[in-house]
Write a structure and sequence with these properties.
The structure is a single chain. The chain is mainly beta. The chain has a single domain (about 10-30, about 45-90), classed as OB fold (Dihydrolipoamide Acetyltransferase, E2P) (Beta Barrel). The protein is about 5% helix and about 50% strand. The chain is built from one helix and five strands. A hairpin with a 6-residue loop joins strand 1 (about 10-20) and strand 2 (about 30-40).
Length: about 100
């Protein structure tokens, strides 16, 4: 039986190590160094253990302009998981 992650969200502060548009033209991919993480109100927090690590994250189209060409990101991080593996996704701040 496939295992999926429950709804979760952390608020993070991260340094953007690198970022580039996705090859399919939808969104972007970035490597971010997580500097701080705290649980969002009412959500499971999966990012606290990730402070000090560099993650490859998906950047959805509405956030691309706030990541590409910038040094830091402050906003949400969600861990999405299923049978194909885990993907980290950036989210709008306090969303």
């Amino acid at each position: 039986m496939p295992v999926t992650t429950p709804p979760n969200r952390s608020e993070i502060v991260a340094r953007i190590v690198s970022a580039e548009p996705a090859s399919d033209g939808w969104g972007a991919w970035a490597n971010v160094a997580v500097e701080k993480a705290a649980p969002a109100r009412g959500k499971n927090d999966w990012a606290a253990a990730l402070v000090g690590t560099v993650l490859k994250v998906f950047v959805p189209p509405p956030l691309v302009a706030s990541v590409l060409g910038h040094e830091h990101f402050e906003g949400g991080l969600s861990v999405r998981g299923g049978p194909a593996g885990v993907t980290y996704v950036l989210m709008e701040p306090n969303g």
